[in-house]
Amino acid sequence: MCQVYVTIYPCGHEERKYSFCRAAKTGKGGERCPCTAASEYRRTATAGCYLGGCDYLNAGRGNWTCCKCENPNSGIPRCDHLVPCPDIFNVTRERYEPQEKMMNCGHDCCQNCQKERKSPPTETRRCDY
Q: What domain of life is recorded for the organism (predicted)?
């Protein structure tokens, strides 16, 4: 049986490591895929992130604007907006034509992304006269 070890970091990113058994399959691109009876073990990390440039905690787990596609994000460490994929071309005998394929941006919040920090709640005092 395959085993999947998931580490959840304070920023929300998840790191997955696999231990494959003999029943594991190999995908079309050569990547290994866990068997259908895989066991998953989850743990929470207390500090840091496995991505060296992750700056999501400095965003206060709030709103940030992706420096790659310039779209706003809220409450997630990785940009999930759809962006055009300009590197895909339709090849014909006459010419190359760019295709309008869409893909997830997938950029992780970094130091270059603009952060909108959450401000602490203002304290209101009630005066009894």
A: Eukaryota
